[in-house]
Design a protein that fits this description.
The chain contains 15 helices and 22 strands. The chain is of the alpha/beta class.
Length: 458
């Protein structure tokens, strides 16, 4: 596949890195010579210094032969125009744009991005994507990650095995025997900075991060089985009243009327604006690094501190201060991958990485075959994938024990006619089934082939 990426920032670099390792033909455009130089030096991609919306630059990058353009510059308008030019002049089949300004996405302007007006096939809104991720994490205390699949019927949760975890040192197959009515499967284990795809005979040990795919209705029971029975937060302090913070507070007001939310926003004008738009949320103007402001927000009585500013260091430090002052738990938005490796040692209970969320959303549309959803985990070590089985899929009609699945793939759940099922050796996948599985990065190509329309690969 030939892909043009407009924007060589964190998201653009991350997409280029992933696609280039999968033997795609990738070209990256950015106005910054240092960014293009860095991406040329470190990745097997072509880099072009220029404006991503200019026809001559797109032509130089090979837009006339491109299968897809992904516009993720810092500016919505450049992303939109780049997609329009790619469509009008070069007939690029698939156009993806990152758009941050919520005014473009208002429901009464839904026709804006139609093929007749501005032909963008996929709109990525990081604020909404990240906001929804934060809300899922708030709703599932004890989970390090949580993503839904199959019409929200299946959930993937990442669960840390602490010292008092009841399921450590127990073979996974024995857990299935002990809890036969629990629709949950451990599909991956992060141990010693390495992702393991476990076999049924393997055991979890203290310190593991287990990735579990389960029926949405069994999530809390699964968390309890791993020793995580933390109560849901009812008193929340949010640091940062930007688009994400406002979205989270507004949604909590609509869905959880009993939850008390307070926002600390540094910019006075923004604080006044969101205070007018929120009905029950208390908005405080000040810095979340100011201990007096934190005390004024009653941080000592809060269940959860959610740090959502644009500054990683502010998010980390305010989260640490909140716990020191008595807050029970914290959740921080962290953009830089450099900080993610030592958040636990700093006292950060959980984190959300906007870059990873955006890349996962884009990969869903890059993947070949009937791939319906993708979630990248552990900085790209693996992907949790939802795929639909087609009549010609080689995975259909054969008992799973007889399938020679490639190494690095483990099936977690089947979704058939509105019912979630845990796969076992006797299971047979039928045409139309949705399969949620984990695949290590070097096995993703095999998943694409398993769910392709034709059998040419085999």
């Amino acid at each position: 596949m030939k892909v043009i990426i407009c924007g060589a920032g964190r998201v653009g670099y991350g997409i280029a890195e992933r696609l280039s390792t999968e033997d795609n033909d990738v070209s990256v455009i950015d106005t910054s010579p240092p960014l293009i130089h860095a991406i040329r030096e470190s990745l097997d991609v072509r880099g072009y210094v220029g404006h991503g919306a200019h026809p001559e630059v797109l032509a130089q990058a090979g837009a006339d032969q491109a299968d897809m353009i992904i516009a993720v510059t810092l500016y919505d308008e450049i992303n939109m125009v780049a997609c329009q030019v790619a469509h009008s002049l070069f007939n690029v089949p698939t156009k993806i744009a990152r758009i941050r300004a919520q005014s473009y996405l208002a429901s009464h302007y839904s026709d804006l991005f139609s093929r007749e007006n501005m032909p963008i096939d996929v709109i990525i809104s990081p604020e909404i994507e990240v906001g929804q991720m934060v809300l899922r994490r708030i709703a599932l205390p004890g989970a390090n990650d949580a993503v839904r699949f199959s019409d929200d019927s299946i959930t993937m949760v990442a669960i840390e095995c602490l010292e008092d975890c009841p399921v450590v040192n127990t073979p996974l197959e024995q857990l299935s025997d002990l809890f036969p009515d629990l629709t949950a499967t451990v599909v991956g284990v992060w141990r010693d900075n390495n992702l393991i795809v476990p076999h049924s005979s393997d055991q979890l040990i203290t310190g593991d991060l287990a990735f579990v795919i389960c029926d949405r209705n069994h999530v809390r029971r699964t968390l309890g089985l791993f020793g995580h029975e933390e109560p849901e937060a009812t008193r929340i302090v949010i640091s940062g009243g930007g688009n994400i913070g406002f979205f989270v507070a507004k949604t909590i007001e609509e869905r959880q009327p009993r939850t008390k939310v307070k926002i600390i926003e540094y910019d006075r004008e923004r604080a006044v604006s969101i205070a007018d738009d929120l009905s029950r949320t208390v908005v405080l103007n000040g810095s979340s690094l100011d201990q007096q402001i934190l005390v004024e927000a009653d941080i000592q009585d809060a269940d959860l501190m959610v740090a959502l500013t644009n500054d990683d260091q502010v998010n980390i430090l305010s989260s640490v201060m909140a716990k020191r002052l008595g807050c029970k738990a914290n959740l921080a938005l962290i953009n830089s991958p450099a900080f993610l490796d030592f958040t636990k040692t700093l006292g950060i209970d959980a984190s959300v990485n906007p870059r990873a969320v955006t890349i996962s959303r884009i990969l869903q549309h890059v993947r070949r075959g009937r791939i319906l959803a993708v979630h990248s985990i552990q900085q790209g070590a693996a992907e949790v994938i939802e795929a639909e089985a087609l009549e010609t899929s080689p995975i259909v009609g054969t008992e799973l024990r007889d399938l020679d699945l490639p190494h690095g793939i483990r099936l977690g759940a089947l979704y058939r006619d509105g019912t979630v099922m845990r796969p076992d050796g006797d299971s047979k996948i039928k045409t139309g089934d949705r399969v949620v599985l984990l695949a290590k990065t070097d096995s993703v190509r095999h998943v694409e082939q398993l769910f392709r329309v034709s059998l040419e690969f085999f």
